[in-house]
């Protein structure tokens, strides 16, 4: 499809985004048949019918504290009659995995899964996927993201699902941690790095292009997940009131 043809066929694209903290439990375990093969238990598919709508073009699912792929496998079966297919992403690119916080024996992960309507495969493309860990000692905390190209050159969308550290007493670290994930997603060598300093040895970007911040590269950036923010000595209603009075800057 040429660039002109892509622009002519532009239409409204409906995108549905969902997050789930799975609590380090297997909610949709697989069933082992008599011949030893494993398959997803489709008897629980009704649970998805009340949650996941069927009239969207793109579905982006974020998982926190996942321990297996039962959820994504069941979603694949649920979407089959609706002609919705999953983008296949390698395990190294679609999740951050580690132990800790209720999962010491086996690992858990923070990950992302993306599905799309088959009849839109020519105009909805997965261009890049990647994951950034918060560090070896932080378990599954970090971020996993994908870049979608919708209707050719018209729209680039970046979806980032993240599980941030809980830093109650050091709230200013959230800003630093957010930028740590942001920079490592686009692999900017440093805050003050000039384009001319980038060489063939510069790490290949996870989601964006080097020497540019992630927010500068896409038409839309959807950052979702468990940001682990807390309110202390103030209510949600008070925060809303302060925002209306412009006493809080965000």
UniProtKB/TrEMBL annotation:
SUPFAM superfamilies: DNase I-like. GO terms for molecular function: phosphatidylinositol-4,5-bisphosphate 5-phosphatase activity. It comes from Reticulomyxa filosa. Keywords: Membrane, Transmembrane, Transmembrane helix. This is Inositol polyphosphate-related phosphatase domain-containing protein. GO terms for biological process: phosphatidylinositol dephosphorylation. PANTHER family: INOSITOL 5-PHOSPHATASE, INOSITOL POLYPHOSPHATE-RELATED PHOSPHATASE DOMAIN-CONTAINING PROTEIN. The chain crosses the membrane at residues 146-172.
């Amino acid at each position: 499809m040429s660039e002109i043809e892509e622009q002519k066929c532009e239409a409204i694209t409906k995108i549905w985004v969902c997050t789930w903290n799975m609590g380090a439990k297997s909610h949709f375990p697989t069933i082992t048949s008599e011949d030893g093969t494993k398959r997803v238990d489709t008897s629980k598919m009704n649970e998805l019918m009340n949650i996941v709508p069927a009239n969207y073009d793109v579905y982006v699912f974020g998982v926190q504290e996942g321990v297996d792929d039962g959820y994504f496998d069941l979603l694949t079966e649920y979407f089959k009659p609706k002609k919705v297919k999953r983008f296949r992403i390698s395990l190294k690119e679609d999740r951050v995995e580690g132990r800790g916080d209720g999962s010491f024996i086996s690992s858990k992960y923070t990950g992302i899964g993306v599905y799309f309507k088959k009849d839109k495969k020519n105009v909805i493309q997965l261009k890049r996927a990647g994951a950034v860990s918060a560090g070896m000692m932080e378990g599954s905390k970090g971020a996993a993201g994908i870049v979608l190209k919708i209707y050719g050159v018209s729209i680039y969308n970046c979806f980032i699902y993240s599980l941030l550290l809980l830093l109650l007493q050091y709230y200013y670290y959230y800003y630093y941690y957010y930028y740590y994930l942001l920079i490592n997603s686009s692999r900017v060598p440093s805050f003050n790095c000039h384009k001319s300093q980038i060489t063939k040895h510069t790490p290949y970007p996870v989601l964006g292009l080097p020497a540019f911040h992630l927010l500068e590269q896409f038409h839309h950036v959807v950052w979702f997940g468990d940001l682990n923010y807390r309110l202390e000595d103030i209510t949600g209603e008070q925060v809303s009131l302060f925002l209306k009075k412009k006493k809080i800057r965000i």
